[in-house]
Amino acid sequence: MAEKALHDVRFAKAADVMTREVVAIDGTATVADAVRTMRERKVSSLLVNRRSQDDAWGIVTRKDVVNKVVNPGKDPSEVKVFEIMTKPLITVSPGLALKYCARLFASAGIRRAPVFDGKEIIGILSNTDIFNAVRV
């Protein structure tokens, strides 16, 4: 039974388990705004909008806030999101098997990645989504 459950998760695709609602913020917003948005929307990260079609997306996470704002003692209302975000992002394809997503996350040292269909971000895949896909 456990072998079948592992088989199912290894061959599931990113689009099968991703979170479809992606919450975004502009890079010019303050970290205080980002924290409020994360709390209101009950998410641990925000996609940072591109400034133009030629720009890359960014991401800001709770870890970024803790490590880059709280730890050094900065005021969240004075720090802009673009100052602490990660950019450019590693994205995954909606058809990528979860076993490869898990390998990518481990090798890149990331916990989440936007799911990009070639035109737009259609979701976000986290290690929690992959974990929750394991049926026991």
- The outline comes out as globular
Count of DSSP E strands?
5
- Give me the Rg, rounded: 16 Å
Into which percent range does the helicity of residues fall?
Answer: 40-55%
CATH homologous superfamily classification: CBS-domain
- The neighbouring-strand order within the major sheet is 1-2-3
Q: Which whole number gives the mean pLDDT? A: 92
* Helix segment tally: 7
In terms of structural class, how would the helical and strand content be classed?
A: alpha+beta
Description of the structure:
With 136 residues, the chain is an alpha+beta fold. It has one domain: Roll (CBS-domain). 40% of the residues lie in helices and 15% in strands. The protein is built from seven helices and five strands; from the N terminus they run H-H-E-H-E-E-H-H-H-E-E-H. The strands form two sheets. Strands 1-2-3 form a three-stranded mixed sheet. Helix 3 links the parallel strand 1 and strand 2. The longest helix has 11 residues. The relative contact order is 0.24.
Keywords:
globular; 40% helix; two-stranded antiparallel ribbon; 136 residues; 7 helices; 3-stranded mixed sheet; CBS-domain; alpha+beta
In short:
Helices cover 40% and strands 15% of the residues.
